[in-house]
Amino acid sequence: xxxxxxxxxxxxSCGIAAGAAEIYGALKREIKENNYRVxxxxxxxxxxxxKEPLMELELPDGTRFTYGNLEExxxxxxxxxxxxxxxxxxxxxIPGKSDYDYFTKQKKVVLRNSGVIDPEEIDEYLERDGYTxxxxxxxxxxxxxxxxxxxxxxxxxxxxxFPTGVKWSFARASDSDQKYLICNADEGDPGAFMDRxxxxxxxxxxxxxxxxxAHAIGADKGYIYCRAEYPLALERLNIAIGQARSEGFLGExxxxxxxxxxxxxxxxxxxxxxxxxxxxxxxIEGERGMPSPxxxxxxxxxxxxxPTNINNVETLAxxxxxVRNGAEEYREIGTENSGGTKVFxxxxxxxxxxxxxxxxxxxxxxxxxxxxxxxxxxxxxKAVQLGGPSGGCLPESQLDTPVDYETLTDAGAIxxxxxxxxxxxxxxxxxxxxxxxxFTQEESCGKCTFCRVGTKRMLEILERITxxxxxxxxxxxxxxxxxxxxxxxLCGLGQTAPNxxxxxxxxxxxxxxxxxxxxxCPAGVCRHLITYKITxxxxxxxxxxxxxxxxxxxxxxxxxxVIDQExxxxxxxxxxxxxxxxxxxx
Amino acid sequence: MVTKNVNIKDIDEELKxxxxxxxxxxxxxxxxxxxxxxxxxxxxxxxxxxxxxxxSKVYSVATFYAQFRFEPLGEHLVKICHGTACxxxxxxxxxxxxxxxxxxxxxxxTDDGQFTVERVACLGCCSLAPAMMIDDTVYGNxxxxxxxxxxxxxxxxxx
Lengths: 586, 159
Prior knowledge:
heterodimer; A: 586 residues; Glutaredoxin; Rossmann fold; five-stranded mixed sheet; B: alpha+beta; Arc Repressor Mutant, subunit A
């Protein structure tokens, strides 16, 4: 039996932003001042973002307690209760992994270590069978590994879903003295944080997957192309690479097998299009990150003109599990055409948001309602957005769709890299479509005319509609322009840019028509189409008139206030600050 | 972020850890920006000399990527997240509030040089939406009051 109480603090970027650093600091302070026999540990994302900052306390006898939504003062109370009173601290106690229905429908494969181990300690990874898959893999020929990955039905988790084993076989078949393996960690979709969390929580799983992949295809040099916006992920990758080198898992003659491979980190510089593989390679080479036509495919002529294989973070991090547990076990988790699990970043108007991992084939309804517990604040569900700027919004009628590559594409969305933003009755679908078009037209590299100009034109049409100046013909124009942009763009950015517009038109055309024909935004979002009014309920407290940024509210103290509609900029401040909910949107 | 005086003669010394090859260009630009807060024009010319490529090429790459800037920054960089989750949870309110509190628009720096405000695509802290980042610290679940409080802490710290 252990002697110390062990306390794990969720210490990924989200946790830190929620206050984990203060909690960890308080914990260290309390332990030192009171000489408590407590071992504190920083772990990666536990997945329960809605409970951050949080900690898991494990008594020497193995009993566990999870505490969430912590504030600094709670730390000493938790410690005093457990250490001096031998009881838990009820105020902040939350259900733990084993008894929280948030976790029961999840299946942790790729996130099995995240939130469990200290990602900066290789020993903790080794204790959880880390690098045993590499040892196994190095004993067999690369072709056997490729067959195993083919049998597992692992498909690209970056979104397109290309069978990973098949991709590897192309790179392996290319004859060259120099081959490269690239891990795409340029997670650019707004609303997605799976890869960041994975790297922050379990960086060695990615490295081990990369080394096995490199052995399979015969690459001796690897790059991880990671966003510069992820400083903690970059830091933990650097630490992990250093540790892997000193343990002999990276570098010359790995584990005495004769196979050599090393990894370099390439830091992205903030261009969404660099998530596209040819653009990404141009960026590593020090060029503008613009896509190139394919063929030649990277497997024939990729980075620095050499055969190159590119996989996404989550894809590679699945590989060690598959090698350890076998293709069959992996395949059994998923569906007929697609093995394993998928990680989703569940966010938006959801009651319990976080990082969730589910078997492929789980329905949207199970994810949003059983795991996420539905819409926050007792509002109605309206849509779920998958796949970011390349994806689409699915309505309630599509909630029984299983998450799988083909089914989601048929429904009008895409599996995507895993961003899942839930929207409620207060969200305007035309505004959401406009939001994504604004993003893609901004991020278009400008190479293809239809992507550069077409997305701009679509955005202008959407702006007209949300400004109340749209016409019925605008919808036809959007429908005509969309396939042209799709067909005449070189890369995925342009080819998928119209998707958010097309799916909202498909499922929410009525809402477009409300904007166009009745100058009304039913969700109360589009500023040009709404009016704020102060109702009879006003108590004349003057809060709104004091807070109004443009001094558009007048009224004596104690009497009903009035908004000057000419001056009002529709910012919603009055509605937010009113203590008696006497401001309404009409 | 501190803007140092730039001395071209130091460039070779400053960049000596980077091989003189094309693929060093972006890492070099990142280093220069992290040292100086932005990419001064004369340094970009110096980088061109160092890598033996025309300054126009350096500029062409630098302007492609959103990370690089060509004007000095304020003391604190405020990045307002406009990811999807933040968008539906009130990124516009954050933008309005920061803008009216500091009296600047997106991409601008306050007159006293304390704050530069930027709009960014996604900070990847979607569960804490709406969020913003000041220097290296992320602030989540923002409300008008919380934003005012955070900004006043930064102002107080300086003043």
